[in-house]
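ENTRY TYPE: paired fold submission
RECORD: A
CONTENT: sequence, then structure tokens
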Amino acid sequence: VVGGVRYDALVLPPITNLEREAFEATRNFLNEDGVVVSVSLLPIEDIEEGASIVDGVSRISDMEAGRMIKDYLGHELGVHLVNRGNLHLVRTGGSVVQNGGARALADLLVQLQPRQMIIQTEQRATSAILSHHRRDGGQDIFFLVNATGLAFDAKIGLRAQGRKKPSVQLWDVETGERTQLDVETESEYGMVPLRFEAYQSRLLVVGAEVDEPEPELPAIEVPAKGNWRVDLEDDNALRIDRFRMQVDLQRKGQNLGWHTTGYADSRWVTVGAKPFSEQLKDATPTSLPLDFNGADPGPSVSLPIVVWYRTSFQADVIPNKLALVKDRGAIQGNYQIFLNGTKLPNNSFRPTFRYDQSNLTCALGRRVTKGKNTIAVRVEVESLDDGLIDAFYLFGKFSVRKWKTDGTRIGALSGRGPVGDLDANRLPYYAGTVSYTHELAIKKPNSKRFTIEFDKLFKDTEDIVEILINGHSLGARLWSPYAWVGQSSWIKAGKNRVTIRCTNTLSRQLTALRYNHRSHRVVEVKI
């Protein structure tokens, strides 16, 4: 017994020495009928003064230190099992893995400590389930987790522990509801069929007191198709990470109007937000006034140099609170930011937490106009690592859609849309919680409780989903199955207000990417 927990077996890896306290604990464990399994090598050297640990190990194992090290270094190839009472030696010549020592160890442990549980699944889900077994009084508790995005059927075999057919219950870890399961006997195991949805966890208890089975709860139908009312609990975002770039060798860009909306920048090179050295790789000899004739790939650059970046967006509406947000390190080098030809003062960017503690926010107010708006950035690049290296963001209550070929436009929020589809609701870069609400006629069940399920609706989601009926929360789900249990008293005659709250992560906002479950690929968000 260690720390209030009882152990039946101890496995020792290959070791060359052992501290005295650990040796005494191991010897006492053996004397109290504990099982010790040693793999390949027991201690062959003493590291503390006093009575020799090596001699003590030799007396227990009847193995000399010299013989053990010869075996371990490959004097005898293959695997040999040696039993000394409750001490079992898995002797291998050389590598444990190459000589099949791991398999021999597994087989030995099954003989010494028969498996309390076996798991049978289809081939694709062979390694999908992680499990933990704990014995509590007269009960055996098994916690199983599907660690994959696969959904599959499994058979769980539980050792009968002297009973002809074990009593197995499935406990709901959220509600505490207990369901008695049907058990079929196969050899010394009682087999129960169990369905695992993606990332679902299950709790099985063997030997629990049998309660009267509860009647199956009725399921209520809530049609989720069509347009629901859409409410954003956070500001929407427009991610700006593509810019037109040009170098200003004569430092006359401002005089030439490079910071204004009307300047034509179609001949400038298009780059992403990254260091200037990486942006140069996107350039061609005709796109930048630099020398591309050197031996090294790319142009020759004499630093310091002034570099301009421009990007535009179309505004169909001007939100009451519209903000330009960037990180402190988004621009490396001395810089100036212009909006529609007007310089934004550096002190107009205030520390404000949006998605990171290093965010700086500038309230744009009346600086934005309906129609085309242009953001220009002038940077003095003194190192090839300088430049515009991270994305900008617009935050406010607006929708986002395409403008021309590669541009974006902000417009009014539609107010209604499909449940759980950020792209269709023109919220491609949104991070936070969206509430979808609809007034529906629901037939009140005769039972005290009911179930509701949205597995098909959210089969490809990574969001946290919460359901509310007439303001009563049925709870949140971080993964499938997307099923809930509610109180029938919450349902009233006539129309009922159903709200589905979906909360996502910062992934879309910070990367402009999403994970496609069907193709198992990371793809760009749709605008």
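RECORD: B
CONTENT: sequence, then structure tokens
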Amino acid sequence: MVALTPDDGPALQDLLERCDDYSRLNFGIPTGAADAQSQFLEGLQHVPEQRKHLMGCHVDGRLVAAADLLEGHPDDRTAALGMLLVDPEWRDRGLGTAILLGLGSALAGRGVRRLRVDCHVSENTRAVPLLRRLGFAESSREVITVAAGQTRTRVLWTSGVPLRPRAEERAAVGSDCPRAEEPVAVGSDCPRAEEPVAVGSDCPQAEEPAALGSDRPQAEAPVAVRSDYSRAGAPVPRPLPPLDRLFGLPGVSAVAEPYYFDSPLFDDYERDVERRTGETDWDLAGLASAVGEGGRVLEVGCGTGRALVHLAATTQASLLVGIDTSEPALERARARAAAAGTGRVEFVTGDFLAYRPESAFDTVLLADCTLNGFTEASAVSGLLTHARSLLAPGGRIAVSVFDDGAPAAMSHLDGRMVVDSFADRDGFHHIVIWSMRFDADTALLHRTAAVPRTAPAPGEPVRCVVADMNDRIWTPSTLSPLFAAAGLSVTAEEAATLTSGAADGSPMTTLVLSPV
């Protein structure tokens, strides 16, 4: 977000009027004609002017979110978040959570230790779950009187910064909590998942740090990002019908793998598919263009090294580093690099958000729909914010995703069953059965894969290995507010077409992003 000045008064007034429910919820009256002007005049007298921040988020030149923040209130180590507004058109896009997370990260970098938020709980029931998911705890409450004798129950919520969503509630955070549209609650200053207004306002745009006196988000991404593939935080597998019956059939012993890409059996399946159909290459030209003349390159979620080894052979990059949580995948990546004879590629096992390299990178890659493994907007925002913090001056981020329109064209995947076969590393042949569900409205794709194995002896149960996965089909339009929240803008793109897999023929694109 960027700092707003009195010259932005008309745009702020227009936003306030579009978010009229904010005023009605908090003060019991409609938006006043001079409300924007009062925002530039308000502020506690004991708080230095440089610690009063009125910030805004613009998309295509239009103000779509606004927030005010007081540093040093009520003490030097605490910041108080006041108004949070999000344009109704930008609600339900996860901006609220993203902004709060960005603010928390920026504040932590400035020595602030606590963030407090007021919330009219009785009128904003969805705010409570959201605040709790983000780690806030209730510290006080009081009944206040607003216009015309109306009452509100004001609750003060406080959390340490950077904000850290509770592990057990992260799924909920991604699903509905950051609804940028609940302007009322957000405007009130609580990031009600429903108060799109506030949510939108809270989006941690790169400009937001600027308003706080920093030129970019802090390196520590506040969210403990979890991919739905993650071994550590993955949900308990819930296989899709009819494969869910494998766990209750007599004579069947089904085992759920916690992480598809760490399973030796499914790793063999992926190897066999690559051998038969060739590796996907739709994004390689766009990635090479993003890398340009070279420099230091980092790929997040590099998998088996497909992109990095190719780029080592086709670009002048001085160093290419890949990071992934899957050691089996990285073993294949190292073998691939060794076979290609390149000495400029390195691979790191670990969590990207905990990665603190000694030197910055000229290009950070999120290739081959890596973002799809993160269904939560807050998780994607955390990834983008951290990626931005690792860029050298003039650096860029390349993101390869499905293009707009792809989700609507993928409705045929809903309810689809696919049967395939493959040979494992020992030469034994297996059948793999896939069951899929796809919601075109939310772009959520749920897949279950099952491999039945031969019973070892008469009377022994058939052993079956099952893996469950969830993805969100992110596109440029759904990512746009998250790019803005992370202080990034699209500077180039290269279109392509997917030529393999269940979504064969889908439009794809590689976006090149630069810090705002």
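NOTES ON RECORD B: The chain has three domains: 2-211, 243-275+407-472, 278-404+474-515. Confidence is low (pLDDT under 50) at residues 167-236.
STATUS: closed
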